[in-house]
Write a structure and sequence with these properties.
It contains 19 helices and no strands.
Amino acid sequence: MMAGEALKLRFDRIQSVAIIAAVGGLVGSAIAGLVWPSAFFPAYLVGFLFWVGISLGCISLLLLHNLTGGQWGRLIRRPLEAGALTIVPMAILFVPIGFGLKTLYPWADSAIVAADRALQHKAPYLNPVAFLLRSGISFVLWITLAYLLNLAASIRDRKGGQAPGWLYSMSGPALAIVFFTGSFVAMDWGMSLEPDWYSTIYGVMVIVGWALLTFAMMIFTISLLARSEPVASAATPGRLQDLGNLMLAFVMLWAYMAFSQFLIIWSGNLTEEIPWYLRRLRGGWEYVAFALVLFHFFVPFFALLFRDLKRNSQVIIWVATAVIVMHLVDLAWLVLPARGEALGTGPRIPWGALLLVLVTTAGIGGVSIWCFLWGLKRRPLVLEEHPAHRGGSAHV
Protein backbone atom coordinates (compact mmCIF):
# COMPACT_ATOMS: atom_id res chain seq x y z
CA MET A 1 0.00 0.00 0.00
CA MET A 2 1.60 3.20 -1.15
CA ALA A 3 1.63 6.34 0.93
CA GLY A 4 -1.47 8.48 0.52
CA GLU A 5 -1.47 11.74 -1.36
CA ALA A 6 -1.80 13.72 1.88
CA LEU A 7 1.29 12.01 3.27
CA LYS A 8 3.24 12.62 0.06
CA LEU A 9 2.31 16.29 0.19
CA ARG A 10 3.58 16.40 3.77
CA PHE A 11 6.84 14.81 2.64
CA ASP A 12 7.14 17.43 -0.11
CA ARG A 13 6.66 20.26 2.39
CA ILE A 14 9.26 18.80 4.72
CA GLN A 15 11.67 18.42 1.80
CA SER A 16 11.16 22.09 0.94
CA VAL A 17 12.04 23.06 4.50
CA ALA A 18 15.02 20.70 4.38
CA ILE A 19 16.32 22.41 1.25
CA ILE A 20 16.08 25.80 2.95
CA ALA A 21 17.89 24.45 6.02
CA ALA A 22 20.55 22.84 3.83
CA VAL A 23 21.23 25.96 1.80
CA GLY A 24 21.15 28.30 4.78
CA GLY A 25 23.22 26.02 6.99
CA LEU A 26 25.84 25.18 4.39
CA VAL A 27 26.19 28.77 3.19
CA GLY A 28 26.52 29.94 6.79
CA SER A 29 29.04 27.18 7.39
CA ALA A 30 31.07 28.19 4.34
CA ILE A 31 31.19 31.81 5.54
CA ALA A 32 32.22 30.67 9.01
CA GLY A 33 34.90 28.46 7.47
CA LEU A 34 36.45 31.46 5.76
CA VAL A 35 36.10 33.87 8.68
CA TRP A 36 36.64 31.60 11.70
CA PRO A 37 38.13 28.25 10.60
CA SER A 38 39.34 27.30 14.09
CA ALA A 39 35.70 27.18 15.27
CA PHE A 40 34.08 26.05 12.02
CA PHE A 41 35.91 22.77 11.50
CA PRO A 42 35.28 21.33 15.01
CA ALA A 43 31.63 22.42 14.77
CA TYR A 44 31.32 20.88 11.31
CA LEU A 45 32.87 17.64 12.59
CA VAL A 46 30.22 17.44 15.34
CA GLY A 47 27.38 17.89 12.85
CA PHE A 48 28.94 15.41 10.44
CA LEU A 49 29.43 12.76 13.13
CA PHE A 50 25.79 13.16 14.14
CA TRP A 51 24.31 12.57 10.69
CA VAL A 52 26.83 10.00 9.41
CA GLY A 53 26.12 8.04 12.58
CA ILE A 54 22.47 7.76 11.58
CA SER A 55 23.43 6.59 8.09
CA LEU A 56 25.72 3.88 9.48
CA GLY A 57 23.15 2.98 12.11
CA CYS A 58 20.53 2.39 9.42
CA ILE A 59 22.88 0.09 7.50
CA SER A 60 23.82 -1.79 10.68
CA LEU A 61 20.24 -2.28 11.89
CA LEU A 62 19.14 -3.52 8.47
CA LEU A 63 21.91 -6.11 8.53
CA LEU A 64 21.04 -7.03 12.11
CA HIS A 65 17.38 -7.53 11.22
CA ASN A 66 18.37 -9.76 8.31
CA LEU A 67 20.17 -12.00 10.79
CA THR A 68 17.66 -12.00 13.64
CA GLY A 69 14.27 -11.27 12.06
CA GLY A 70 11.47 -9.97 14.26
CA GLN A 71 8.52 -7.64 14.01
CA TRP A 72 10.54 -4.70 15.35
CA GLY A 73 12.42 -4.51 12.06
CA ARG A 74 9.37 -4.85 9.85
CA LEU A 75 7.97 -1.59 11.21
CA ILE A 76 11.11 0.48 10.62
CA ARG A 77 12.60 -1.35 7.64
CA ARG A 78 11.43 1.21 5.06
CA PRO A 79 12.89 4.17 7.00
CA LEU A 80 16.08 2.16 7.55
CA GLU A 81 16.40 1.47 3.81
CA ALA A 82 15.89 5.16 3.02
CA GLY A 83 18.31 6.16 5.78
CA ALA A 84 20.99 3.81 4.47
CA LEU A 85 21.04 5.70 1.17
CA THR A 86 21.98 8.94 2.94
CA ILE A 87 25.52 7.57 3.23
CA VAL A 88 26.02 8.80 -0.36
CA PRO A 89 25.65 12.54 0.42
CA MET A 90 27.60 11.94 3.64
CA ALA A 91 30.58 10.85 1.54
CA ILE A 92 30.39 14.16 -0.35
CA LEU A 93 29.93 16.18 2.82
CA PHE A 94 33.08 14.60 4.25
CA VAL A 95 35.16 16.71 1.81
CA PRO A 96 35.35 19.84 4.05
CA ILE A 97 36.93 17.72 6.80
CA GLY A 98 39.68 16.78 4.35
CA PHE A 99 40.42 20.48 3.82
CA GLY A 100 40.48 21.13 7.58
CA LEU A 101 42.88 18.38 8.64
CA LYS A 102 45.58 20.77 9.85
CA THR A 103 43.05 22.80 11.82
CA LEU A 104 41.44 19.76 13.43
CA TYR A 105 44.25 17.27 13.97
CA PRO A 106 47.69 18.07 15.43
CA TRP A 107 49.21 15.06 13.65
CA ALA A 108 48.33 16.64 10.28
CA ASP A 109 50.57 19.66 10.96
CA SER A 110 54.15 18.85 10.00
CA ALA A 111 55.53 21.57 12.31
CA ILE A 112 53.81 20.03 15.34
CA VAL A 113 54.89 16.52 14.36
CA ALA A 114 58.52 17.65 13.98
CA ALA A 115 58.55 18.85 17.59
CA ASP A 116 56.77 15.83 19.10
CA ARG A 117 58.55 12.46 19.25
CA ALA A 118 55.34 10.62 20.15
CA LEU A 119 53.62 11.93 17.01
CA GLN A 120 56.64 10.97 14.93
CA HIS A 121 56.29 7.44 16.26
CA LYS A 122 52.59 7.37 15.28
CA ALA A 123 53.16 9.03 11.90
CA PRO A 124 53.01 5.80 9.82
CA TYR A 125 49.38 5.48 10.89
CA LEU A 126 48.38 9.06 11.71
CA ASN A 127 49.13 10.97 8.53
CA PRO A 128 46.82 12.73 6.04
CA VAL A 129 47.24 10.19 3.24
CA ALA A 130 46.47 7.18 5.44
CA PHE A 131 43.60 9.02 7.14
CA LEU A 132 41.92 9.91 3.85
CA LEU A 133 42.59 6.45 2.41
CA ARG A 134 40.95 4.70 5.38
CA SER A 135 37.98 7.06 5.24
CA GLY A 136 37.63 6.64 1.47
CA ILE A 137 37.71 2.83 1.65
CA SER A 138 35.14 2.89 4.44
CA PHE A 139 32.76 5.07 2.44
CA VAL A 140 33.11 2.81 -0.63
CA LEU A 141 32.23 -0.24 1.48
CA TRP A 142 29.29 1.51 3.17
CA ILE A 143 27.86 2.83 -0.11
CA THR A 144 28.16 -0.64 -1.63
CA LEU A 145 26.28 -2.18 1.29
CA ALA A 146 23.58 0.51 1.14
CA TYR A 147 23.13 -0.19 -2.57
CA LEU A 148 22.92 -3.97 -2.03
CA LEU A 149 20.40 -3.57 0.79
CA ASN A 150 18.16 -1.37 -1.35
CA LEU A 151 18.61 -3.68 -4.33
CA ALA A 152 17.39 -6.56 -2.16
CA ALA A 153 14.43 -4.41 -1.09
CA SER A 154 13.48 -3.83 -4.74
CA ILE A 155 13.71 -7.56 -5.45
CA ARG A 156 11.61 -8.29 -2.37
CA ASP A 157 8.91 -5.89 -3.58
CA ARG A 158 8.83 -7.46 -7.04
CA LYS A 159 8.54 -10.96 -5.58
CA GLY A 160 5.72 -10.14 -3.20
CA GLY A 161 7.78 -10.08 0.00
CA GLN A 162 10.32 -12.84 -0.78
CA ALA A 163 13.85 -11.52 -0.20
CA PRO A 164 16.76 -12.94 -2.24
CA GLY A 165 18.79 -15.62 -0.49
CA TRP A 166 22.09 -13.76 -0.84
CA LEU A 167 20.74 -11.00 1.42
CA TYR A 168 20.92 -13.25 4.46
CA SER A 169 24.22 -14.92 3.62
CA MET A 170 25.97 -11.56 3.20
CA SER A 171 24.51 -9.90 6.29
CA GLY A 172 26.80 -11.53 8.86
CA PRO A 173 30.12 -10.65 7.17
CA ALA A 174 28.73 -7.25 6.16
CA LEU A 175 27.81 -6.42 9.76
CA ALA A 176 31.33 -7.33 10.84
CA ILE A 177 32.72 -5.04 8.13
CA VAL A 178 30.56 -2.13 9.29
CA PHE A 179 31.62 -2.69 12.90
CA PHE A 180 35.31 -2.92 11.96
CA THR A 181 35.36 0.12 9.67
CA GLY A 182 33.09 2.10 12.00
CA SER A 183 35.48 1.52 14.89
CA PHE A 184 38.44 2.72 12.85
CA VAL A 185 36.76 5.88 11.56
CA ALA A 186 35.49 6.67 15.07
CA MET A 187 39.07 6.58 16.29
CA ASP A 188 40.31 8.50 13.24
CA TRP A 189 37.66 11.21 13.23
CA GLY A 190 37.19 11.56 16.99
CA MET A 191 39.89 10.04 19.17
CA SER A 192 42.80 11.32 17.07
CA LEU A 193 41.77 14.91 17.83
CA GLU A 194 43.99 14.33 20.87
CA PRO A 195 46.66 11.95 19.52
CA ASP A 196 48.47 11.74 22.85
CA TRP A 197 45.42 10.00 24.37
CA TYR A 198 43.91 6.63 23.58
CA SER A 199 41.14 4.34 24.76
CA THR A 200 40.48 0.82 23.52
CA ILE A 201 36.75 1.20 24.18
CA TYR A 202 36.34 4.55 22.39
CA GLY A 203 35.43 3.16 18.96
CA VAL A 204 32.85 0.73 20.35
CA MET A 205 31.38 3.46 22.55
CA VAL A 206 30.86 5.72 19.55
CA ILE A 207 29.31 2.91 17.48
CA VAL A 208 26.89 2.00 20.27
CA GLY A 209 25.97 5.68 20.55
CA TRP A 210 25.24 5.78 16.82
CA ALA A 211 23.00 2.69 17.14
CA LEU A 212 21.14 4.32 20.03
CA LEU A 213 20.74 7.52 18.01
CA THR A 214 19.38 5.55 15.06
CA PHE A 215 16.83 3.71 17.19
CA ALA A 216 15.70 7.04 18.64
CA MET A 217 15.45 8.56 15.16
CA MET A 218 13.45 5.58 13.88
CA ILE A 219 11.03 5.78 16.82
CA PHE A 220 10.67 9.51 16.21
CA THR A 221 9.99 8.88 12.50
CA ILE A 222 7.51 6.05 13.07
CA SER A 223 5.67 8.02 15.75
CA LEU A 224 5.11 10.81 13.25
CA LEU A 225 4.17 8.47 10.39
CA ALA A 226 1.77 6.59 12.68
CA ARG A 227 -0.54 9.60 12.62
CA SER A 228 -1.55 8.61 9.08
CA GLU A 229 -2.26 5.42 7.17
CA PRO A 230 -0.81 3.01 6.19
CA VAL A 231 1.68 3.20 9.06
CA ALA A 232 -1.02 3.80 11.69
CA SER A 233 -2.33 0.24 11.27
CA ALA A 234 1.17 -1.28 11.23
CA ALA A 235 2.46 0.64 14.27
CA THR A 236 0.79 -1.62 16.80
CA PRO A 237 1.48 -1.12 20.52
CA GLY A 238 3.41 -4.41 20.56
CA ARG A 239 5.79 -3.30 17.82
CA LEU A 240 6.32 0.07 19.48
CA GLN A 241 7.08 -1.75 22.71
CA ASP A 242 9.68 -3.86 20.90
CA LEU A 243 11.38 -0.71 19.61
CA GLY A 244 11.22 0.86 23.06
CA ASN A 245 12.80 -2.23 24.60
CA LEU A 246 15.63 -2.14 22.07
CA MET A 247 16.23 1.56 22.68
CA LEU A 248 16.32 0.83 26.42
CA ALA A 249 18.92 -1.87 25.81
CA PHE A 250 21.13 0.51 23.85
CA VAL A 251 20.68 3.27 26.45
CA MET A 252 22.09 0.86 29.04
CA LEU A 253 24.83 -0.37 26.71
CA TRP A 254 25.95 3.18 25.87
CA ALA A 255 25.99 4.11 29.56
CA TYR A 256 27.97 0.97 30.36
CA MET A 257 30.59 1.81 27.71
CA ALA A 258 30.90 5.45 28.75
CA PHE A 259 31.08 4.66 32.47
CA SER A 260 33.55 1.80 31.94
CA GLN A 261 35.93 4.11 30.11
CA PHE A 262 35.65 6.73 32.86
CA LEU A 263 36.07 4.18 35.66
CA ILE A 264 39.14 2.55 34.12
CA ILE A 265 40.88 5.89 33.51
CA TRP A 266 39.89 7.25 36.94
CA SER A 267 41.17 4.15 38.74
CA GLY A 268 44.39 4.10 36.71
CA ASN A 269 45.01 7.83 37.34
CA LEU A 270 47.75 7.98 34.71
CA THR A 271 49.08 11.35 33.63
CA GLU A 272 48.75 10.52 29.93
CA GLU A 273 45.07 9.56 30.29
CA ILE A 274 43.37 11.83 32.84
CA PRO A 275 43.84 15.15 30.91
CA TRP A 276 41.15 13.96 28.46
CA TYR A 277 38.57 14.00 31.24
CA LEU A 278 39.98 17.08 32.95
CA ARG A 279 39.32 19.06 29.78
CA ARG A 280 35.69 17.84 29.86
CA LEU A 281 35.01 18.29 33.57
CA ARG A 282 35.87 21.94 34.16
CA GLY A 283 35.21 25.39 32.73
CA GLY A 284 31.46 24.69 32.47
CA TRP A 285 31.81 21.35 30.72
CA GLU A 286 31.13 19.58 34.01
CA TYR A 287 27.51 20.78 33.80
CA VAL A 288 27.27 19.32 30.30
CA ALA A 289 28.62 16.01 31.63
CA PHE A 290 26.01 16.07 34.41
CA ALA A 291 23.26 16.78 31.86
CA LEU A 292 24.44 13.80 29.80
CA VAL A 293 24.27 11.50 32.81
CA LEU A 294 20.81 12.79 33.68
CA PHE A 295 19.10 13.14 30.30
CA HIS A 296 21.06 10.71 28.13
CA PHE A 297 20.81 7.86 30.62
CA PHE A 298 18.71 8.23 33.77
CA VAL A 299 15.63 9.90 32.30
CA PRO A 300 15.37 7.63 29.20
CA PHE A 301 16.24 4.59 31.32
CA PHE A 302 13.52 5.08 33.91
CA ALA A 303 10.97 6.28 31.34
CA LEU A 304 11.48 3.22 29.14
CA LEU A 305 10.95 0.87 32.08
CA PHE A 306 7.21 1.59 31.88
CA ARG A 307 5.37 -0.70 29.49
CA ASP A 308 2.46 1.66 28.81
CA LEU A 309 4.81 4.49 27.85
CA LYS A 310 6.59 2.37 25.25
CA ARG A 311 3.27 1.32 23.70
CA ASN A 312 2.07 4.91 23.19
CA SER A 313 3.48 6.66 20.12
CA GLN A 314 2.39 10.07 21.42
CA VAL A 315 4.54 9.64 24.54
CA ILE A 316 7.57 7.64 23.43
CA ILE A 317 8.33 10.24 20.76
CA TRP A 318 9.36 12.64 23.54
CA VAL A 319 11.80 10.13 24.99
CA ALA A 320 13.26 9.59 21.53
CA THR A 321 13.56 13.35 21.02
CA ALA A 322 15.45 13.72 24.30
CA VAL A 323 17.90 10.98 23.25
CA ILE A 324 18.44 12.63 19.85
CA VAL A 325 19.15 16.06 21.35
CA MET A 326 21.41 14.71 24.07
CA HIS A 327 23.41 12.65 21.60
CA LEU A 328 24.25 15.82 19.70
CA VAL A 329 25.30 17.34 23.03
CA ASP A 330 27.41 14.24 23.71
CA LEU A 331 29.23 14.59 20.39
CA ALA A 332 29.91 18.27 21.11
CA TRP A 333 31.25 17.23 24.54
CA LEU A 334 33.56 14.71 22.89
CA VAL A 335 34.89 17.02 20.15
CA LEU A 336 34.94 20.68 21.20
CA PRO A 337 37.02 20.46 24.43
CA ALA A 338 39.81 18.93 22.36
CA ARG A 339 40.14 22.20 20.44
CA GLY A 340 39.79 24.55 23.43
CA GLU A 341 43.27 26.05 23.06
CA ALA A 342 42.87 26.56 19.31
CA LEU A 343 39.51 28.25 19.91
CA GLY A 344 41.09 30.58 22.45
CA THR A 345 38.65 29.60 25.19
CA GLY A 346 40.93 27.22 27.08
CA PRO A 347 38.87 24.94 29.33
CA ARG A 348 35.76 27.12 29.07
CA ILE A 349 32.78 26.31 26.87
CA PRO A 350 33.20 27.93 23.41
CA TRP A 351 29.71 29.35 22.94
CA GLY A 352 30.49 30.63 19.47
CA ALA A 353 31.54 27.16 18.34
CA LEU A 354 28.40 25.69 19.93
CA LEU A 355 26.30 28.09 17.87
CA LEU A 356 28.17 26.96 14.77
CA VAL A 357 27.35 23.35 15.73
CA LEU A 358 23.66 24.20 15.31
CA VAL A 359 24.35 25.85 11.94
CA THR A 360 26.44 22.99 10.55
CA THR A 361 24.07 20.34 11.93
CA ALA A 362 21.14 22.09 10.26
CA GLY A 363 23.01 22.34 6.96
CA ILE A 364 24.14 18.72 6.86
CA GLY A 365 20.81 17.59 8.28
CA GLY A 366 18.88 19.40 5.56
CA VAL A 367 20.71 17.40 2.90
CA SER A 368 20.31 14.14 4.82
CA ILE A 369 16.58 14.64 5.50
CA TRP A 370 15.86 15.55 1.87
CA CYS A 371 17.61 12.39 0.65
CA PHE A 372 15.90 10.33 3.35
CA LEU A 373 12.42 11.47 2.30
CA TRP A 374 13.30 10.96 -1.36
CA GLY A 375 14.15 7.35 -0.57
CA LEU A 376 11.09 6.94 1.64
CA LYS A 377 8.75 8.03 -1.17
CA ARG A 378 10.13 5.47 -3.63
CA ARG A 379 8.54 2.41 -2.01
CA PRO A 380 5.47 1.43 0.04
CA LEU A 381 5.82 2.59 3.65
CA VAL A 382 4.65 -0.75 5.02
CA LEU A 383 6.74 -3.81 4.16
CA GLU A 384 4.78 -6.51 2.36
CA GLU A 385 5.23 -9.97 3.82
CA HIS A 386 5.61 -13.12 1.74
CA PRO A 387 2.71 -15.57 2.37
CA ALA A 388 5.12 -18.37 3.30
CA HIS A 389 6.48 -16.30 6.22
CA ARG A 390 3.30 -14.98 7.74
CA GLY A 391 2.65 -17.84 10.08
CA GLY A 392 6.04 -17.70 11.74
CA SER A 393 6.55 -14.00 12.14
CA ALA A 394 3.67 -13.03 14.39
CA HIS A 395 4.52 -10.79 17.31
CA VAL A 396 4.97 -12.75 20.53
